[in-house]
Write a structure and sequence with these properties.
By secondary structure, the chain is an alpha+beta fold. Helix 5 crosses helix 6 and helix 7 packs antiparallel against helix 9. The strands form 5 sheets. Strands 4, 6, 10, 11, 12, 21 and 22 form a 7-stranded antiparallel beta sheet that branches. Strands 13, 14, 15, 18, 19 and 20 form a 6-stranded antiparallel beta sheet that branches. The protein has a 5-stranded antiparallel beta sheet with strand order 1-24-23-3-2. The two termini are 51 Å apart. The protein is elongated. The protein folds into 3 domains: 107 residues, no CATH class; 102 residues, Kinase associated domain 1, KA1 (TATA-Binding Protein, 2-Layer Sandwich); 240 residues, no CATH class.
């Protein structure tokens, strides 16, 4: 208690020095690496705005206060959030702070001679002796040390020799591998950061028959790096010719209805010419450093609306987002040019319509076997002229009124492809023309990703060295009429006893033929005991 009262106040500088020492330990680096991995978990569990802004909007809308809270703490933008970046930067600082002093220490250790033999070799973890003479044969100490030096050299030991003993050490590659491992982690983190600064991510939903011209205005969402120059966008056009999907209707249990094939036939037009590709998940099309991935698919009903005079107020595909494994999809259609009032449609597409046990309409399979489109209709002000951006996947109904049927009930459209329905109160007609498929594309450009593979290989190579290369010291000393052989493991080394026993065998009077045994041989037998 008194010691605590009399402890000196280290002050602010002392606290900062203590904090720096804690941060730059290897333990802190490993903890931060674990924290970074844990921090990335929400990015895999929750939809991310950079990948699928529509899914994020739907999640927030469906979860109300919880969705707004998760958005406020940046869980839909995990990899660009303040807290993820803070852990990222701390990890880099920690790695630099612990690598530099360890590298200096390792460099000095490699330049120094192995430590000389201690006075009492019997205290070492592995110890053995063999006599210089058996009564009829006596060996000279120098000859025996020469023999030991030759055997240790073959086993890869660094040595220093004195008049009466040899001190040897091996396993420097263990620490070298450890440093390579941590340097590779640091460089990998830097490469990822540079990719975020100079690269870009973009998403585009492309319906069959549509063409995507590679420009900023053509993206549905686009996230440029801090130093990305939009003038560097490669010039190309991508047309989705067709999309073939297949779902498993033969499997049983949880595998029933699982997707088995997504093949997008695309045409790529560049200044050098035109070429057709088969785009599949994880098999991107590469264009001038950019990679186009197929990340999703769905259905887009083609809807045409007309006013009471027969004038077309809207005609085209409407992207509906799948909500479950049987592709029950939701979508929104906004018609600002409708007459006499603006119209808003909120709908559900059932690819294979059926009834559940309660008699409710549901989708029973993901393929278009019995498609049905159900839409609610609203009239009023869509709010598109306020200047406030809106999601194309959400319908703001605050200033809209539900369209009412002639009997006073809420009007609802239930349509199949080819159907035309008349809206009440002179709002015209709606025609459900057909259903097209769409592909969700992700365009990714990372100018430094080419360096990721070599440093990942270095990372695993360094890890292998640090795990599997043993670090040990061995001493051979002539002491009176005996030769002492001792070994000391530096870290985990289960073979240090075996190495000493094998070296004893090499130096024994009844040794095997030269060259058939070495201090690290796996097959040599210990004939001297310990």
């Amino acid at each position: 208690m008194n010691a605590q009262k009399n402890a000196p106040d280290i002050g602010v500088v002392g606290m900062l020095r203590w904090g720096w020492r804690q941060l730059t330990t290897m333990r802190a680096a490993l903890i931060l690496l674990l924290v970074l991995a844990l921090a990335a978990i929400p990015g895999s569990l929750l939809p991310q705005r950079i990948q699928d802004p529509g899914a994020v909007s739907t999640f927030i809308e469906e979860n109300g206060a919880l969705g707004n809270f998760l958005d406020a703490v940046q869980l839909f933008d995990v990899y660009t959030s303040v807290w993820f970046s803070a852990v990222y930067i701390l990890l880099m600082v920690s790695l630099v702070g612990c690598i530099i002093p360890r590298a200096r220490q390792h460099y000095r250790a490699m330049r120094q001679d192995p430590p000389l033999a201690p006075r009492r070799l019997t205290r070492m973890s592995a110890y053995s002796t063999t006599p210089l003479s058996d009564g009829s044969t006596t060996r000279a100490p120098d000859d025996l040390l020469d023999e030991a030096q030759s055997a240790l050299k073959k086993a890869g030991y660094r040595m220093v020799r004195t008049d009466d003993h040899i001190a040897a050490e091996r396993g420097y590659l263990k620490e070298t591998g450890n440093l390579v491992f941590h340097v590779s982690i640091l460089v990998t983190v830097i490469i990822m950061a540079l990719g975020g600064l100079f690269g870009y991510y973009g998403q585009r939903v492309l319906v069959e028959g549509e063409t995507f011209s590679h420009s900023l205005v053509s993206y549905d969402s686009f996230e440029p790096g801090t130093y990305f120059d939009a003038s560097e966008l490669p010039e190309f056009r991508l047309t989705l010719d067709s999309l073939e999907t297949r779902f498993d209707d033969q499997a049983e249990g949880a595998q029933f209805g699982q997707p088995r094939r997504f093949d997008a036939q695309v045409t790529l037009d560049t200044p050098d010419g035109s070429e057709r590709f088969l785009l599949r998940p994880n098999e991107p099309v590469r264009v001038d450093g950019a990679r186009v991935y197929l990340i999703g698919n769905g259905y887009a009903p083609v809807v045409t609306t007309r006013d009471a005079d027969g004038n077309v107020t809207y005609s085209g595909p409407v992207v509906f987002l799948p909500q479950d494994g049987v592709y029950t999809s939701t979508g929104v259609l906004k018609v600002p040019d409708a007459n006499p009032d603006q119209l808003g449609f909120g709908g559900v597409l059932l690819p294979t319509a059926g009834n559940n046990d309660q008699g409710e309409l549901v989708s029973t399979f993901a393929e278009l076997r019995n498609p049905l489109l159900v839409m609610d209709v609203y009239t009023g002000d869509l709010g598109l002229d306020t200047g406030v951006p809106q999601s194309v996947y959400q319908l703001e109904t605050d200033d809209l009124a539900r369209l009412v049927d002639t009997d006073g009930s809420d009007f609802q459209l239930v349509m199949r492809p080819g159907d035309t329905a008349t809206l009440p109160d002179g709002h015209g007609t709606v025609t459900f023309e057909e259903i097209r498929k769409y592909a969700a594309l992700d365009v990714h450009h990372d100018p430094v990703q080419v360096w990721m593979l070599p440093f990942m290989l270095l990372l695993f190579g360094g890890l292998a060295l640090s795990l599997f290369v043993p670090r040990r010291r061995v001493w051979v000393r002539v002491s009176g009429d005996d030769v002492e052989i001792a070994g000391l493991a530096r870290g985990e080394d289960p073979r240090v006893d075996e190495a000493v026993a094998e070296l004893t065998q090499v130096l024994a009077l009844e040794s095997v033929e030269p060259g058939t045994a070495s201090p690290d041989s796996d097959t040599a037998q210990n004939r001297t005991g310990k």
